[in-house]
Amino acid sequence: MNQPTKHLAIVGGGPRGLYALESLYLALHNSDTHKKLKITLFEPFRHRGSGWVWSPSQVDTNWLNITERALQNLPGRPEMRIGETIIPSFPSYTEWLPKEEQNPPATHPDQFPPRAKMGTYLNARFETIAQTLMGSGWLEIIEGGVTKLDYDGRFFTACAKANNTPIHNNDNQDAEHFEISHIDEVVLTIGHQDTELSDQLKSWKAHVAKAKTPLLFTEAYPIEKILEAKIDAENTVAFRGFGLAMIDQIRALTLKKGGRFEVINEETQELTYYSSAEHPQQFVAFSLDGLPMVPKPLNEAIDNQFMPSDEALKTFAKAVHQGACGKHSAEHHYFLMEEIATVVVPVFQKLGDSAWSHDLTDEELYYLIINYLNDQSLEHELLLLHKIPVIEMMEMQVAMATSNGKISLDYCVGQVWRHCQPSIYSEFSYPDLRDNVIAEVIALDEASKRYSYGPPVESIQQLIALHKAGFLNLDFVNNPDITLVDDGWQLESNGKKIIVDVMLNAVLDPPKLVTVTAPIIKNLMESDVIEALHTDLGIRTDDYGYVETPEGKSFIPLAVLGRLSKGSVIGVDAILECFGERIRNWAERSVAQMIDTKKTDG
Asked: How many CA atoms lie within 13 A of 455 on its CB side?
């Protein structure tokens, strides 16, 4: 049997596409079959394994918001044997690091590497398996994107548009448009996709087209495009958004134009900023709520204060699974608030004098946490007031993150939530709940991300230093009135006004299926192959990642893993989830179906 028995296409060669490829061959390695797979992988970006989000060539001012310590959970690849072919192992991320970086002392500041560093790892990992599989004739890589999928009831045909000439074993294809047919199964592992612009951005785009002089960037990344534009000391720059993308943008527009930060306090990572005449002298940040990202604890020793016990995490995971998929599944999202509160209470009480003082009983604290999670603007003596100046808020949160200030209840809740997130992501997959309850749970998790997806202390100290040096204006941070004027945009808040002539969108669109404009997604929706789980969410899939087909329709061998299946799964933006159990489950199911198939070989 020389010919492969199953032809599978992976659409998207970023981290999830890489792990899908590895997981398929691991499942094949662990099976007792002698059948083979032929895989066609489509990826328009030249750095396969990383995708554009983790590009090894991006600016080093784009940082991860996960510590290298947490990345110890990113597994390596074992050696696999398929027939006479040996697929080499590849180390875990931590094993891949230089020895001196692998196990830093618990009191050393956690390291948040540049995204390019992770991209270098992912690309190297991809190439080692790809070279082996291509050498055996089992993998074909198309350097281009799929625009359309046709399914005739037995096979898929992928219509693709190449960026360059397709590579490896594809010499007869047209260099621009071509088709790959007789595909038995397709898995979509595509990440961030273009979406429809909001009404606000549409109006701004039309304004800029008429005004000519002002600059508008509707996409946060790649930041290289922003750096290539003529943005200098003559410009006043505004950021639409006050999150991680904004921090990357302002870091690039200062450090890449000659500015520099200097540490003046190692214990708190406090910085002073030395400016350059090459960069804008005024930056203005704003968002709908004006709230900053919250720094993660400075190091492992500080972070351990917020770590629930193993028993508490185990009980929590069981409760989440029961609420999501049990016999008596939850009727509303409050079950998750209740379970989080149960975990937080003993952690906060154990902080003792390190926390804001109070005389609440465990029960009173429990209900306060639930009320806070239900309304994060709640005012209480244990909660950081949203009404205080944003610079004061950032300074207080830095103090908490560095053990130089007592800890508020909201900071504790946010850090405990982060430690609970892996259990939420694992146990809330493919929930058996009403769609509106799923949407509410996901909204609750999204609300936690200001804390759980928070940046390093250093990032917030950079913003504080820029503000103190007079370059970052925070007077308009909380939902200012915006008027379009000849010179750009006029922002107004609390009687103050400012005109900006460069506007950078720093808001990343959520994976909301109905707004995605990618041709392949529009094609699949128009042909009724996929449907949204909820108007605010992604594609409806089954427990193995396969698209759920309407009642009365036959199963379609199309799987969706990752960002566009948000709702069926949760935690779609986390790098560790790209190497998780859900992808392994799909791969094992795919190989099992290949073994059980009644089709004749070839």
From this structure: 24
> What residue type is 127 in one-letter code?
E
pLDDT digits (tens, 9 = 90+) for 433-456: 787 888 888 889 889 999 999 999
| Contact between residue 444 and residue 373 where contact means Cβ atoms under 8 Å apart | yes
What is the C-alpha radius of gyration for the chain, rounded to an integer number of angstroms?
Answer: 25
Give yes or no for a contact between 270 and 263, defined as CB atoms under 8 angstroms apart: yes
At 296, is the secondary structure helix, strand, or coil? coil
User: Would you give the DSSP letter of residue 308?
Assistant: P
> Residue 217 domain-assigned?
yes
- The rounded distance, in Å, linking the Cα atoms of 12 and 18 is 9
- Can you tell me the distance from the alpha carbon of 167 to that of 176, in angstroms, rounded to the nearest whole number? 13
Which of 408, 426, 452 is where one domain is finished?
Answer: 452
**DSSP state for residue 38 in the 8-state scheme:** E
Distance between CA 262 and CA 259 in Å, rounded? 10
Are residues 439 and 359 both part of a single domain? yes
Q: What is the CATH number for 273?
A: 3.50.50
Residues 387 and 498 in one domain: no
* 318 in the same domain as 255: no
Helix and strand numbers, DSSP H then E, in the chain: 17, 20
Q: Are residues 322 and 393 in the same domain?
A: yes
Which of helix, strand or coil describes residue 307?
coil
Give exposure, 533-562, as e/b (b: 16+ Cβ within 10 Å). Answer: bbebbbbbbeebbbbbbeeeeeebbbbbbb
One domain for residues 447 and 314: yes
- Give the residue among 25, 23, 20 at the shortest CA–CA distance from 10: 20
Residues 152-173: tens digit of each pLDDT: 889 999 998 876 433 333 444 4
- Tell me whether residue 598 is in a domain: no
What are residue 499's DSSP bridge partners? 490
Residue 540 lies in a domain: no
Do 364 and 473 belong together in one domain? no
Give the global pTM.
Answer: 0.92
Write the DSSP assignment of 419-433 as a string of letters.
HHHHHHHHHTSS--S
Least confident of 43-52, 166-175, 592-601: 166-175
Structural domain count of the chain: 3
Inter-residue contact 521 to 191 (CB < 8 Å): no
Does residue 164 lie within any of the structural domains? Answer: no
Instruction: Report residue 29: phi and psi, to 5°.
Output: -60, -40
Retrieve residue 267's tokens. 């214990």
Fill in the DSSP letter of residue 580.
S
Residue (of 424, 414, 420) closest to 448 by Cα position: 414
| Residues contacting 421, CB < 8 A, separation 6+ | 445, 448, 452, 571, 574
Is 441 found in the same domain as 324? yes
Q: CA 55, CA 534: separation in Å to the nearest integer?
A: 31
Collapsing DSSP states into helix, strand and coil, what is residue 341?
helix
Count Cα neighbours of 83 within 13 Å in the Cβ-side half-sphere: 12
Structural domain for 112, as ranges: 47-141
